[in-house]
Design a protein that fits this description.
This protein is an all-beta fold. It has no helices and 5 strands. The protein has one domain: Immunoglobulin-like. The termini are far apart.
């Protein structure tokens, strides 16, 4: 916003790159996207999956990272948490 602005600018699309690191090839993971910080659980990530606004299951075959892109509005919040698919 400009120093003299009194209104927020219009929301625009923003592309985020999400990178999960320190993964093990062949292990199944789940990536949860939350729309607010309070909706991110402190425990039981898979057990509280219903609190996530988006869920993505993935398994890498080589390397140690998984990368994906997601487009959101600049006025939105996106918080990501990746966990082992077998976690509680």
């Amino acid at each position: 916003m400009a120093d003299t602005a009194t209104a927020r600018p219009a929301s625009k699309p923003v592309t985020l790159t999400v990178t999960v690191s320190n993964l093990t090839p062949g292990v199944s993971y789940k990536l949860y996207r939350h729309a607010s910080m309070p909706s991110v659980p402190d425990a039981r990530f898979n057990g509280t999956a219903g609190q996530a606004s988006q869920k993505t299951a993935f398994t890498i075959s080589a390397g140690t990272t998984y990368t994906t892109s997601v487009t959101i509005a600049s006025s939105d919040v996106a918080v990501f948490r990746a966990v082992h698919a077998s976690a509680s």
